[in-house]
Amino acid sequence: MYPPRGTSLLVGILVLCLGFFGGRRLFIDEEPPAVVRSNPAVLSVWLGQGFARPGLHQLSDASAWTGVIALTDGSGVPEWLKLELSRHPPRSGECLSLGRSEAGKPVLLRRWMPAEQRMVLGIPLHPKRMSGEDWQALPGIGPRLAERIEMDRQKNGDFSDFTALDRVPGIGPKSLERWHKYFE
Known about the structure:
- By secondary structure, this protein is α+β, with helices and mostly antiparallel strands.
- Among the domains are: 43-112, no CATH class; 125-182, AF1531-like domain (DNA polymerase, domain 1).
- The protein is 38% helix and 13% strand.
- The protein has a four-stranded mixed sheet, covered by helices on one side.
- The protein is flat, with a radius of gyration of 25 Å.
- The termini are far apart.
């Protein structure tokens, strides 16, 4: 007596699938990282309002920022901006915009990219540079825990480093271990 037509083909395909997907698990030691850290020598800065070509710009030489800005603007870099960038070079994860002070003088405005963007780009986070929304970008942190973190910071001051988060109720060693890959 023969099995119904196509049964052996179906069994064969099932065995192949199980072998393929089951065999892949043998080579995975741990959960793959959520992001791949970029080369730490590469600086990623977002040029915003006031620049001719706003957007993300990445550079491997921090001393060449004025050249990059000149290329994006298509014109020369003002002396005041060259001086500002030489005194305080941009850091990875910063957003730079050009604005005017109340007196009408041009100023360079700085803020941090949202944590989600920094995580995607592989830029390490630092607890001093995090907002309530930034905390929620981390796995396992919702609005309540983010609020507790911010309340703790208001009450006890900034976190000296990433491990100081354990002083917040609801954050333990397992959470710190899970988030370690995102912080410097």
